[in-house]
Structure formats: structure tokens, C-alpha cells
Amino acid sequence: MNHLIAPSILAADFANLQRDVEMINNSKADWIHVDIMDGMFVPNISFGFPVVKAIKTHAQKPLDVHLMIVDPDRYLKAFADAGAASITVHYEACPHLHRTVQAIKELGCRASVAINPHTTVDLLKDIIADLDMVLVMSVNPGFGGQKFIEHTYTKIKEAKALAEAANPELYIEVDGGVDAYNAAKLISAGANVLVAGNSVFSAADQPTAIAQLKQA
């Protein structure tokens, strides 16, 4: 499976969001990563349904929606209706995870579960066969621009081992501190979807930054 690149719109220029979405459309990126934060599950607030719908209006790549919110079940349909192609919920936020995953699938979206840096991969062993994707957070969620946590490589390898045994087609996504310097090592560990925010949007030539990640 060739790896995918999902630029994180959280790092875009919100005053020029259409421009930045169109840049992604015209780049070698595969998805558009959309971070939803509620100020409760994480100490930051991003945006909600109107902005997701606006992004969808201009997006030509699938929206990879990452819900960093408490009780995400309340809003699954709303985000599917807003244009999500995949919906990621956090293991730490879902007491009835199987139910949540099935609800996402019934909405016609790719079902994904994220784990925070302190959450061990083995906690996913009873559900990994039901997932379309696992998102391994390589920073503590809430803010862009954080330093990459080196233990992430080990967690990706562990997720890859679980997937090979139970779900070989699983997407293994990594988010946080991803750049041209660690992309190849992440892919070698088993990641096949790279989320990149600051390393793309702070670049002088953003399409080239995306292309470099794609070539890693």
C-alpha cells in the first residue's frame, strides 16, 4: 500500500481557507485532515459544522475528520452530513467503542480510532478487526507545532503487528510533528497515512513540501 498524505487544515490560514484548500486540491495530497476540538477533551477550540461544510464545498480530496471531543456519538451524523469521508474518534472518549464504530460505518464513513500518546496499542486488540483506520497521536492533541514523541515509532510497529494478524488492510495514520525528516522512518515502522500541518503550511513552497512527504 502506497502511503497517503493528509495535510492538516488546522495549520492553514483561516482568513484564506478557500485558497489553502485549493492548494491541497492541486497538490499530491490524498486527503484533507480536519481537526475538530471542543475545548473540553483537549485544551483548544477549532471549528464546527459550518466550517467543515465550507471546506467540503471547495475540497476535491476526501475529508479526514478527527474528532477531539467528548461524547462524539452526539455529532457523528452531523459530521457525516457536513462531508466527512472518514471519522476518527478517540479511544479515551468512547465508553462504548464498538457501538460508536458501527454507527460511523452505518453513516457510510471510514471508521477510525485515535489513541493518545499515553494510551497503549494493545487496548485496541479487541476492536482492530472492525476498524478502517487507527490514528496514532505522536503529540498530545490540542495544538499544532508540538515536538514529535519518539516512542511513536514503537507504537506504530505494535499497531502494524496487530493489523497483520487481524486486519491487513488497516490504515495506520500518524499525526503530530510529521515532517520530511521523520516521514520515511514513520513509513518504515508501518504508518501508511501521514498527517502534516506546520511542516506543510509553514513551507515557502507548500505543494513541494507535500510532494516531498509523498516521495518519502
Fraction of helical residues: 25-40%
- Gross morphology: globular
- Beta-strand level of the residues, as a percent range? 15-25%
Give me the CATH superfamily: Aldolase class I
Structural class: alpha/beta
Second rung of CATH, namely the architecture: Alpha-Beta Barrel
What is the spatial order of strands in the main beta sheet?
1-8-7-6-5-4-3-2
Query: What is the mean pLDDT?
Result: 96
Enzyme class: isomerase
Family: Belongs to the ribulose-phosphate 3-epimerase family.
Active site: 35, 175
Binding site for a divalent metal cation: 33, 35, 66, 175
Outline the secondary-structure elements.
Layout: E1 4-7, H1 17-25, E2 32-37, H2 49-58, E3 63-68, H3 76-82, E4 84-90, H4 97-106, E5 110-115, E6 133-137, H5 152-166, E7 171-175, H6 183-189, E8 193-196, H7 198-201, H8 206-214
Parallel strand pairs: 1-8, 2-3, 3-4, 4-5, 5-6, 6-7, 7-8
In short:
The chain has about 220 residues and is of the alpha/beta class.
What does this structure look like?
The protein is α/β, with parallel strands linked by helices. The protein contains 8 helices and 8 strands; from the N terminus they run βαβαβαβαββαβαβαα. Strands 1-8-7-6-5-4-3-2 form an 8-stranded parallel sheet. The chain is globular, with a radius of gyration of 16 Å. The model has no long low-confidence stretch (mean pLDDT 96).
